[in-house]
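Retry 2 of 3 after timeout on previous attempt. Resubmitting C-alpha cells to design endpoint.
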C-alpha cells in the first residue's frame, strides 16, 4: 500500500513538471484570412515589447505591445505594393524592452497580383540585363485620359514625375551597383484614380561597375630553346596607335655558333604621345618602347637617354572638399551634406527615441526620414490631403506644406529647397533629414559609428 502511494505521488509530480514545461513553450503563429489584406499575429509566453513585420527582407511595420502580458494578438495591414507576384517571405520578430531579439517566426505568403491593371512597363517583362542609360516607358492598355500624372520609382524610391507625353524616364544605371533592381510607375488620372504597374526586376551589369571584377593574369611568353636566356618583358605602352609598319633589327645569340645571326622583325610604330613609366616613376613623353634583347647579345649603339627639360611640377596638397564624408566623427547635417551609406539609423529627438513603422535610412549619401512620426513626436499635428498628395503640418510655431513629387516645401511663408523630392513609401511621406533642420529649427548631428541621429534645439 505504501509503495502504491509513493508511485502515485511520483506520477503526480512528473505530471506537474510536464505541465509547467508545456506552459513555458513559446508559441508564435501568423495567420492571413483568404482575400484579406490583414495579417494576424498571435504569441504567448513571450514578454515582448515590440513586434516587427518584415516582408521579403523589408521592414514594413512595428507595433509596441505590453511586455508584462506575456501574450498578445495583433494585426498588420499589408499593402499590395509590398508583395511580389508569387511566394513572399513573411517574418515576425519579437523584441524585449531592451531591444533584444526574443523570437523570429517565418512564413510564406503566396500573392497573385492584379494582372488587369491598365498600366505597365513597356518593353521589359523582368529578368533582362541592362546597362548604361535605359529608357523606362509607361505602357497603357486602355485610354485613361490626357491629364495623367506619372511617377517613376527605382527600388521604391521616387525618381521623376511627368504630366505630359511621352511618359518616359531615362534611368542612368551607372549610378547603381551591379545587381538586381526594381522599377515601377504609378499613374494618377484626372479623376484621382491611382494605378500601379507591376514592379519589374532588371539586372544592372555595367562594365567596370561597382562589382569586384578579377582580371585574369597574362600568361608569360614561351621561351625559345635556342636562346641563351629568356627575353625580358617589354614595358607597358599606354594606348599605342598603329600608323605604319617599320622594320627593326635584333641580334640573337645562338648556341654553338661564335657569330651572332641577324634577324629582321616587323614592328609597328606608335605615335609620339606615348608615356612610359620609368623606374623612377616619372613619365617621359615621346619615348618609344625598347625592343626585347636577349642576354649576352652584341647590342647596337643606342642614343643617350632623353632628359626632361623641366623637373616634374610638384602638385599642391589636396584640400578636402567641403562636404567630404568623415566617418570618424559626428556630422552636423545641413543642406548638401553627404553622409556614409550605413543603411537604416535611429533618430533621438531631445533625448527620446522616435519610433517609426518605416525605418529612416541613407540612400546615395542622403539621409531620409518619414515625416509624420518625427513631427508628431515633436508635438506637431500632421494632416494628409489625398486629392492633392499634400502634407499640411502645424506645430513648433511652424506651418509646413509638403507636396509629393516637388523638390521644394513651404515653411511658414518661405519656400525651402529639398535635396530630394518628397515621395511615398508604405503610405508614409519620406523627406530628406536635412529638411528637418528648417521644419523644426533644430540641430541635427549624424553619428555614423553608432548609427544614431541626435536632434536638439538650437541655442538662441
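Retry 2 succeeded. Sequence:
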Amino acid at each position: 500500500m505504501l509503495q502504491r502511494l509513493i508511485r502515485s505521488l511520483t506520477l503526480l509530480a512528473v505530471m506537474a513538471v510536464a505541465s509547467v514545461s508545456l506552459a513555458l513553450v513559446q508559441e508564435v503563429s501568423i495567420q492571413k484570412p483568404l482575400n484579406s489584406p490583414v495579417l494576424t499575429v498571435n504569441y504567448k509566453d513571450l514578454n515582448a515589447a515590440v513586434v516587427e513585420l518584415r516582408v521579403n527582407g523589408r521592414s514594413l511595420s512595428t507595433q509596441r505591445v505590453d511586455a508584462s502580458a506575456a501574450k498578445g494578438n495583433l494585426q498588420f495591414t499589408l499593402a499590395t505594393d509590398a508583395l511580389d507576384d508569387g511566394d513572399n517571405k513573411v517574418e515576425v520578430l519579437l523584441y524585449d524592452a531592451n531591444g533584444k531579439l526574443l523570437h523570429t517566426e517565418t512564413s510564406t505568403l503566396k500573392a497573385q497580383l492584379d494582372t488587369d491593371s491598365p498600366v505597365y512597363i513597356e518593353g521589359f517583362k523582368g529578368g533582362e540585363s541592362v546597362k548604361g542609360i535605359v529608357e523606362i516607358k509607361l505602357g497603357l492598355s486602355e485610354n485613361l485620359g490626357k491629364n495623367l500624372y506619372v511617377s517613376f520609382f527605382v527600388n521604391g524610391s521616387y525618381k521623376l514625375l511627368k504630366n505630359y507625353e511621352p511618359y518616359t524616364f531615362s534611368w542612368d544605371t551607372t549610378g547603381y551597383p551591379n545587381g538586381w533592381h526594381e522599377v515601377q510607375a504609378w499613374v494618377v488620372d484626372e479623376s484621382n484614380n491611382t494605378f500601379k504597374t507591376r514592379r519589374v526586376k532588371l539586372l544592372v551589369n555595367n562594365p567596370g561597375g561597382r562589382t569586384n571584377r578579377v582580371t585574369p593574369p597574362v600568361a608569360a611568353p614561351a621561351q625559345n630553346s635556342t636562346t641563351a636566356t629568356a627575353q625580358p618583358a617589354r614595358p607597358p605602352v599606354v594606348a599605342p596607335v598603329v600608323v605604319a609598319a617599320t622594320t627593326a633589327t635584333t641580334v640573337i645569340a645562338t648556341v654553338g655558333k661564335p657569330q651572332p645571326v641577324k634577324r629582321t622583325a616587323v614592328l609597328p610604330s606608335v605615335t609620339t604621345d606615348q608615356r612610359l613609366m620609368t623606374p623612377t616613376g616619372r613619365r617621359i613623353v615621346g619615348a618609344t618602347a625598347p625592343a626585347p634583347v636577349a642576354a649576352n647579345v652584341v647590342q647596337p649603339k643606342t642614343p643617350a637617354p632623353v632628359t626632361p627639360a623641366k623637373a616634374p611640377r610638384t602638385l599642391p596638397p589636396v584640400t578636402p572638399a567641403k562636404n567630404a564624408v568623415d566617418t570618424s566623427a559626428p556630422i552636423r547635417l545641413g543642406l548638401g551634406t553627404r553622409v556614409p551609406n550605413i543603411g537604416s539609423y535611429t533618430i533621438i529627438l531631445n533625448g527620446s527615441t522616435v519610433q517609426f513603422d518605416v525605418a529612416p535610412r541613407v540612400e546615395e549619401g542622403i539621409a531620409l526620414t518619414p515625416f509624420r512620426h518625427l513631427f508628431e513626436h515633436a508635438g506637431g499635428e500632421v494632416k494628409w490631403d489625398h486629392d492633392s498628395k499634400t502634407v499640411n503640418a502645424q506645430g513648433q510655431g511652424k506651418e509646413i506644406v509638403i507636396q509629393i513629387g516637388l523638390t521644394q516645401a513651404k515653411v511658414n511663408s518661405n519656400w525651402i529647397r529639398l535635396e530630394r523630392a518628397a515621395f511615398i513609401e508604405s503610405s508614409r511621406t519620406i523627406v530628406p533629414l536635412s529638411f528637418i533642420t528648417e521644419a523644426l529649427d533644430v540641430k541635427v548631428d549624424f553619428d555614423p559609428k553608432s548609427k544614431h541621429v541626435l536632434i536638439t534645439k538650437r541655442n538662441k
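Attempt log closed. The longest strand covers residues 101-111.
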